[in-house]
Amino acid sequence: MTGQAGQGKKPRPGHRKVAQWTRDYERLPGIPDEFIAQDGTPREVWTRFFEAFGAMAPVEIERRFGSADRHLREAGVTYRAPGEIADRIWPLSHVPLLIDESEWLQISAAMTQRAELLEKILGDLYGDANLVASGAIPAAAIAGSSEYLRAMRGVKPPGGRYLNVYAADLGRGPDGRWWVLGDRTQAPSGMGYALENRLVLSRAFTDLYKSMNVERVAPFFEAFRDSLRASADRDEPRVGLLSPGPFSETYFEHATLARYLGFLLVEGDDLAVSGDRVHIRTVAGLKRLDVLLRRVDANSLDPLELDASSQLGVPGLIDVVRKNGVVVANMPGSGVMEARALLGFLPSLSRKLLGEPLKMPHIATWWCGQKSAREEVLARLDNFAIEGAYGGAVPGFPGYSPVLPSQLSPSERERLKAAIANRGVDYVGQELVQLSTTPVWDNGRLAPRPFVLRVFAAATPDGWTIMPGGFCRIADQPDARAVSMGAGARAADVWVVADKAVAASTLLPAVDNVRIRRIAGWVPSRAADNLFWLGRYLERAESTLRLIRALSVPQRDPGKGGATGQQSIERIQRMLMIWGATSLTSRSQPAKIAAQALQGEEQFGSALSLVRSALRTATSLRERLSPDAWQVITEMAERLAHEVEDDDDVVSAAELTLQELASFAGLAQENMNRAAGWRFLEMGRRAERAINTTRFARQFASDEATSDDLDILLTLVDCQITYRSRYLVGPLLAPVRDLVVLDPYNPRSVAFQVSALNDHIASLPTLKENGLMERPQRLAVALRSSLVTGEASEIHTKSLFALEQDLLTLADSIGLHYFPHGASASRPEKLTGLA
C-alpha cells in the first residue's frame, strides 16, 4: 500500500473514522496525488480537513451531502454536455480540493507572470509584430490560427487591455510541482460554476468551512467587476454579459455571473450598432452599452467582418471597437494565445519580454511546423500525445481527445504520420503525462480520481488579482488524460486554506456615497418578450388544467350524467381538441381525453407541453427569476411528466399543478420589483386570461347555454362562491355573463384583466414623441371603454367572438410594438432617440 493515511500518528478525535475511510486509499502508480505527498505521507492540510470532517456523525455527514444535492436541484444548477440538448443537474463532488496557502502563493505568482506575458505578446502580435519579425515567434504559428483576427491588426484595445480575464488549466507534474496544461484567453468559462460550487458547499458545511480558514472569493469578483466598470469612458457605465443564449452548454453560468456581478445578460440580437456606439434594445428604445464581457467566440462576434454565417454576434461591432466605442472583454483576437503551437516558444519569450524564466512549467510541446520538432515527433511517435496545433480536434481524427499513436491501428498510425509529414503546422506532439489525482467520496470511502484545476486571473488597475480557488473538474475513471464536463465527470469546490482566520467578505460596496436607485433600468426587449410569454404560457396551462379538472370530476359522480350534462362535457372535449391538448375525438372516453390533455408529450397544447414551454422560456430569464420561482416551474414540469395511473391521479395532478401556478403568481405579486419586467409578466398573464375567459364564455355562456353550461363556466373561472353570494337562484345567463365578462370588481372577469392591461401599458415608455396614443394603448382604452359601458343584456355569442378577436389583436400589438422580431421589423430604437 502506497502512503496509507495516518501511519505513526497519535489518535485524535475522528481519527479512527478517517483511518477507516482512507484505509484503502492509494496513490496511483507514478501519479502525483493531492492527499498523499511525494514522500507517501498525508499532506497536513488534508489531515486537518479529514479530522474535522470525521468529528461529524455519519448520519450528519449524509444529511449535509443531501442538503448540497437538494440545493443544486432546487436552484436548478445545470449544464449541458457537448453534443447534448437536455440539461443535467450540476454534478458537485462533496469533497473540496484543498490547497495550502503557501503553495497557493506560488501558484498565484506564476499565474500573474503568465497573464502578463500573454498580454505583452498579444500587444506585439496586433501591434508592431516585432516578435514575428525577429523570428521569436514563427509567422506560420500565428497565421495558421483561425483566432488570429487580421481585422484587429493595429487596433488598440478600448480600456487598454487585451486580456481582462485569463485562466489556466493546471495539474501536478511527475515531480510534484504544478504544471500548466493549457491557457484560456478567448472567453474563459468556469467562474460562475466555481462561485456556485462555493455557495453550495460553504452552506452545507458552514462550521467546517469557517474552521478551515478558507480564503474568500468575493474580493476577486469585486475587483473584476470594478475593473470592468472602470475601463469604460463614463461614470456609471452599462455592462453586458454577451451569451450565445440558452442553448449554450454553460448558459446557467452566464446567468449566475450576470446576476452576481449586476451585469445585463444579453444576446447578439439584443444589441445594435448606431453611430460609433453599441446599444442595447430595451422596451424604452436603444440604451448605450459601455462594456461587453463576452462568452461568444471572437469569430462569431460580427457577421460583417468575421464569420458571415454567425447569428450570435452584432453587425458592426468590430468597427465600433476600432473607434474606441465599446470595451470588449476579452479583446477579439485574444484567443490566438490558446494555440498549442505557441507553448514551446513561451519560455524564451518570458526571458525576452519579462527578463525572467517562467515560474511554472507547462507540458513539453513540439510544434510540428518546425522541421527539427517534426522529425523528432515522427522518430519517437509512440512517446507523444498528438494534439491539434490550434485547439479543437486533431485534424483527420474524430472527437476532441488527444490521439495516442501507440493505441492506433497500423493503418491509422501510418495515416497520422503522413498527415504530420505533409502538413506539420496543424499538429503538436506533447509529452505523455497523466493527470494528478485528488480524493473523492465514493460509497462511504475515499478514492483517488484525476482532476484539472482551472485558475482565474482578473486584470485590475493595480495589476492582476488571482481568484483564491478555482474551478476543479474531476474524472470518473482513474486513467483519464483529459477532463470535460460530460458523462461521468464531476466538479469540486477549491479551498485555499490559510493558517489564520479569514475575514468575511462581500460584494457590497464599502463606500457610503452610492447613488440611490429604485429601479435597475429598462428591461431589454428580449427579456420583456420572454417575460410576456412566460405569463401567457403559465396562464394557458392554468386554463387547460381547469378544463381537465372540469372534465374529470363529473366522471367520478354518476349523478351528473344527464343529457344536458353530456352536452357540456362534449363542449369541454371539443375545446381541448381545438386547443391542441388532445387528438382524441369526443367518441373517446373522457378519462383518456383528460389524461392525454394533462401529459400528452406529442400534444402542443397539453398541460405538460405548456409548462415545458414556460420552463424553456424561464431558462432565458434565469438572472431575473428568484430560486423559489424557478423551483415552482421545474417542480410543475417534473410532476406532470410522471405517468398517471387512473382518473384520481389525473385530478390530483391537475389540482396540485393549479396550486403551484397560484404559488408562482403569488411569488410574482409579492416578490418582484414593480418595474417593467414585472409589468410584462403581468401583461402576459392578464392578456391570456382575458382571451381564455372570453373563449370559455363563448362556449358555455352562448345564446343556447344550459344551466349545466353556466355552472361549468363558473367553475372554470373560479366564480362559484362569488355568484352564490350575490344571487339566491341557480346560474342564469345574464348574471353569469355580467360576472364573467363585465364585472370590474371580479379579478377573474375580462373587464378586470383589460383594466389591469390599461394600467400597465400606461406605465410603459412612449416610443413616439408626437403626443398621440400608441397602438397598444389605443386598443386597450377602446376595449376598456366598451366593457365599462357594456350591459349584460347586450352580450351575445357574436359579440363574445368579436371581443375575443379584439383581445388577440391587443396581445399581438404589444408584441409588435415592444419586442418585434426579424431583420426588417420596426424595432423600438427606430421610433425613439438614443440615451
Q: What is the element layout, followed by pairings?
A:
Layout: H1 15-22, H2 44-54, H3 58-75, E1 78-79, E2 88-89, E3 97-100, H4 101-125, H5 130-133, H6 139-143, E4 165-172, E5 178-184, H7 191-204, H8 206-211, H9 218-230, E6 239-242, H10 251-261, E7 264-266, E8 271-274, E9 277-282, E10 285-289, E11 291-294, H11 317-322, E12 327-329, H12 346-353, E13 365-367, H13 371-379, E14 384-388, H14 410-422, E15 427-431, E16 437-442, E17 445-460, E18 463-466, E19 471-474, E20 490-492, E21 494-497, H15 525-552, H16 563-578, H17 590-599, H18 607-619, H19 627-641, H20 647-671, H21 676-700, H22 707-716, H23 720-726, H24 733-742, H25 750-763, H26 775-789, H27 797-818
Structure characterization notes:
- This protein has 27 helices and 21 strands.
- The protein has 835 residues and is of the alpha+beta class.
- The chain has 5 domains: 15-86, no CATH class; 97-340 and 435-497, no CATH class; 364-431, Dna Ligase, domain 1; 522-668, no CATH class; 673-835, no CATH class.
- The strands form 6 sheets. Strands 4, 5, 16, 17, 18, 19 and 20 form a 7-stranded antiparallel sheet that branches. A 4-stranded parallel sheet has the order 7-6-11-12, covered by helices on one side.
- β4 and β5 (178-184) form a beta hairpin.
- The radius of gyration is 31 Å and the shape is globular.
- Residues 1-11, 558-564 and 822-835 have low confidence and may be disordered.
